[in-house]
Task: structure prediction
Amino acid sequence: MATRVMPNNLEAEESVLGACFLSKYALQKAVESLLPESFYSEKNAKIFSAMTALAEEKTPIDITTVTGYLNKKNELTEVGGVEYLTEVLNTEAVAANVEYYIKKVEDAAVLRRLIRTAEDIQNMGYNTNDEVADVLDEAERKVLDIVKNLYEFLQKNKVHINNGLTCKFVT
Result:
């Protein structure tokens, strides 16, 4: 049986990152809504982590600073080097449309979490000696946790970027 690819939207991921290179507003919106785990591509997740860390350090986000950060973390080669960063920077992303791209990335991430949860629930059904009611309760809890965790993240991790450089988490 062929392995199925988890839901993803690599073009939207690259567009989010490209928009973050272009706009403080785009970066703020992305950090408010996404986690590195939201990205399907590991290299895109690492680039987003670098951007977030740089913003927290009050460092401007550009190809030079992101390249330097990733190089310092020995992750530059893993993300495809300066060539991939340049490709992301040159995407046709429009910073004004970042919320659209973020939504596409979020949607794919939620579907991946849902699939993983469904796999866990399936395994519970096959590998349990528990009462059916207990299995159903646990399955319901796992599905509701997806929504709860997303909501809590959005409520607790609002990020504000002031003067282009200051990045702070508001709780």
The first strand starts at residue 158 and ends at 162. Confidence is low (pLDDT under 50) at residues 159-171.
